[in-house]
Write a structure and sequence with these properties.
CATH class of the largest domain: Alpha Beta
Number of domains: 2
Function: Catalyzes the phosphorylation of the 3'-hydroxyl group of dephosphocoenzyme A to form coenzyme A.
Radius of gyration: 17 Å
Subcellular location: Cytoplasm
Strand content: 5-15%
CATH topology of the largest domain: Rossmann fold
Distance between the termini: 20 Å
GO molecular function: ATP binding; dephospho-CoA kinase activity
Mean pLDDT: 94
Order of helices and strands: EHEHHHHEEHHHEH
Number of helices: 9
Pathway: Cofactor biosynthesis; coenzyme A biosynthesis; CoA from (R)-pantothenate: step 5/5
Oligomer: single chain
CATH architecture of the largest domain: 3-Layer(aba) Sandwich
CATH superfamily of the largest domain: P-loop containing nucleotide triphosphate hydrolases
Protein name: Dephospho-CoA kinase
Number of strands: 5
């Protein structure tokens, strides 16, 4: 039976860099963001639930979800954001659980990449949680630069998640991303060696 490692962090703290390192060593990844896109594809139950609750104006002419429109709606309204999470959570949880079950039979270590890991209670379904940590003073300008957001927009996105300091406190493992990418990479490799997943 493989170990299930939940991986989380804040927006723009360097999670995808860590995922790339795990991928490089061949460990299977269950990616909640990819699953979140799949469960709202045209004709899916997830998309039907969005139309039911937020109206058909959220759908583009090609039948796909208008992510930008939905994003700007839910990031500016806490209640609507909660509603969206409530609607999609069962579909997301079901598919994440299914993929974890399949992959843990194939590998000694399975990485479950979930941005809202603590918020969604997914820490209960993994063996340990690793947090990719960057303090907000680095996170904020990084996010503004990466996504071309104003300071206000970037703050809204950061504040829509549990604070990175809270995540750091709860974590079993911390990959500290305040230094170079090489330094971050070394931390991941050291952990893999320590746990005997690689030599």
């Amino acid at each position: 039976m493989g170990m299930i490692l939940g991986l989380t962090g804040g927006i723009a703290t360097g999670k995808s860099t860590v995922i790339a390192i795990f991928k490089e060593f061949g460990f299977p990844i269950v990616d909640a963001d990819i699953i979140a896109r799949e469960i709202v594809e045209p004709n899916s139950k997830g998309l039907e639930a969005i139309i039911e609750n937020f109206g058909s104006t959220m759908i583009q002419s090609d039948g796909y979800l208008d992510r930008k429109k939905l994003g700007s709606l839910v990031f500016s309204d806490e209640l609507k954001r909660k509603k969206l999470n409530e609607i999609l959570s069962p579909f997301l949880r079901e598919e994440i659980t299914r993929q974890v079950e399949v992959k843990k039979k194939q590998a000694a270590l399975v990485i479950v990449d979930i941005p809202l890991l603590y918020e969604g209670g997914y820490d209960l379904m993994v063996d340990q949680v690793a947090v990719v940590y960057t303090p907000e003073v680095i996170q904020l300008p990084r996010l503004m630069k990466r996504d071309g957001l104003s300071e206000n927009e970037a703050k809204k996105r950061i504040n829509s998640q549990l604070s990175i300091e809270e995540k750091k406190k709860k974590a079993d493992i911390i990959f500290d991303n305040q230094g170079s990418q090489e330094n971050l990479r070394q931390q991941v490799i050291d952990w893999l060696k320590q746990k005997k997943f690689i030599k």
